[in-house]
Amino acid sequence: MTELRSRRLQVEEDAAAVYEEFYQRGWTDGLPIIPPTPRRTQEMIEGAGRDPAEILAAMPPRMAPVTIEKVATNAVMAGCLPEYLPVVLAAIEAICDPDFNLRGVNSSTNPACVMTVVNGPIRQQLDINCSYGCMGPGWRANATIGRAIRLVQLNVGGAIPGTGTKSTHGQPGRFTLCFGELEEKNPWSPLHVERGFQPEESTLTVFAATSLIHISDTSSKTAEGTLTTIAHSMDYVGSSLMSEKWRPHVAVLVLCPDHAMVIQREGLSKEDAKRFLHANTQIPLARFPREKHERMIAEGRVRDGTVALRTGPEDFVLIVAGGPTGYHSMHMPTWGHSLPVTRRIRTPSGQEGG
Amino acid sequence: MSLIEVLDPTEEGPKGARLLAPRLEDVNGKTVGFRMQWTRFDVFMDRFEELFRERFAPKEVLRLTGMHSSYFTGTRARESDEFTSQLDWAVVGLAA
After folding, report:
1. What is the pLDDT of residues A201-222, one digit of tens each?
2. Is residue B49 part of a domain?
3. Is the pLDDT of residue A354 over 50?
4. Which of A210, A235, B17, B29 is deepest in the core (most CB within 10 A)?
5. Distance from B7 to chain A by nearest Cα, in Å?
6. Backbone angles phi, psi at A235, to 5 degrees
7. Global pTM?
8. Phi/psi zone of residue B26: left (φ > 0), alpha (ψ -120 to 50 degrees), beta?
């Protein structure tokens, strides 16, 4: 039996009463929760085989210590099964990596949210949706893992709207946004292999996604046509990717399997596609407000009368996910000063890689 | 009415409070810095400096523009350190 250290409360044994109590205390995302009883939390921790007192990190903006116990408690509230906990723990470690800059992600006025992309065999083991509707409702693993990540930010990190987070609007992705890459339909290397892991390892990668932009091209039959549509759906003046040149961040593109197939069948590699996207996301200076021209020129951002969306092809991240039919891809600009972070998922057996 | 026991999902931050630097007795004759973190802070800063110079006689007013958060290393970190080391008093603009 694991020893739990959290403060305990007595509440009426009624689902609605528990929800009301937690809501009034500001401990929920506004949706109903599963009561985090000591027994449920213990089962969650024991399933992962971790010490409840272990501290994963200090989570900004509050800089409170994130223990396994607190993550498990919030995972119970989110509706996670015990076997999901290793994924949530890896995500918490990832977002607390200084490269991700969670303090900035949460305290900014930008709507950035944590987007979690899972790779490797754990996708099948946990039934993480990578296919039809993978970013939407209907899958317990996707919904509750992403929600647990947010609840930890709220309850431990202090990312409370208006105080701990100053996001002007927030966004639906701040409730939950977690999906798997459909590696089986990816004609190139999957994300985690591209980032230095083995195909049989299970990993997750977190991004500070500012929005989800739908890109439809149901009629282009060539790689050039498809990539042209995609490029010009990414290169808009108000994109967070168009902020100052020196801010390190990436342009995420989640290709549907059909778009990936159209691009790859002409022999283009993932790097070829990135080069095309970089070359074709050069925005004419005239599209920007005149009052900004002088400064942009002074910053060295204008070349041959155009402004590059990103500094190079390496700033484009290509993932394949979504239903195997349908010509709809998604683009996620990311918040400046935040870099994607990938972590290996440690499974209960102690194996790293699931 | 039956009760159940539940766990508090929250955690507190560090207890130690950060101490503020001692308040300056006087800004006259001091070196003052305006750190323009956000691009539109200049709207406020220009007016602030105008009023500041009307009412006080600083030794010098320095400005630092652009992002200089702790994320940066190298040149930007050196610029920030050099700027900070010269100041008696600073105004940091987050937004305007």
Report:
1. 999 999 999 999 999 999 999 9
2. yes
3. no
4. A210
5. 5
6. -95, 65
7. 0.89
8. beta
Using the Cβ of B17 and the Cβ atoms of chain A, whether some distance falls under 8 Å is answered with no
Residues A182/A256, Cβ–Cβ less than 8 Å: no
Look at A41 and B1 and tell me if their CB atoms are within 8 Å: no
What CA–CA distance (Å, rounded) separates A242 from A314? 16
Average pLDDT over residues A96-121: 94
Instruction: Name the average pLDDT for chain A.
Output: 94
Q: Which two tokens stand for residue A332?
A: 């996620």
Please name the residue ranges forming H helices in chain A: 15-24, 38-48, 68-78, 85-95, 102-107, 122-125, 140-155, 191-194, 223-234, 257-264, 270-279, 290-298
B5 touches chain A (CB under 8 A): yes
- Which tens digits make up the pLDDT trace of A154-187? 999 999 998 889 999 999 999 999 999 999 999 9
* Structural domains of chain B, count: 1
Identify the burial level of A293 via C-beta atoms within 10 angstroms of its C-beta, where 0-12 means exposed, 13-18 middle and 19 or more buried: middle
Answer whether B26 touches A (CB < 8 Å).
no
Domain of B55, in residue numbers: 31-93
Instruction: Judge whether B12 lies within some domain.
Output: no
Structural domain includes residue B60? yes
pLDDT score at A353:
47
B66 domain residue, yes or no:
yes
A147: helix, strand or coil = helix
Q: Read out DSSP for A154-192?
A: HHTS---BTTTB--SS--GGGT--EEE--GGG-SS--HH
Average pLDDT along chain B: 84
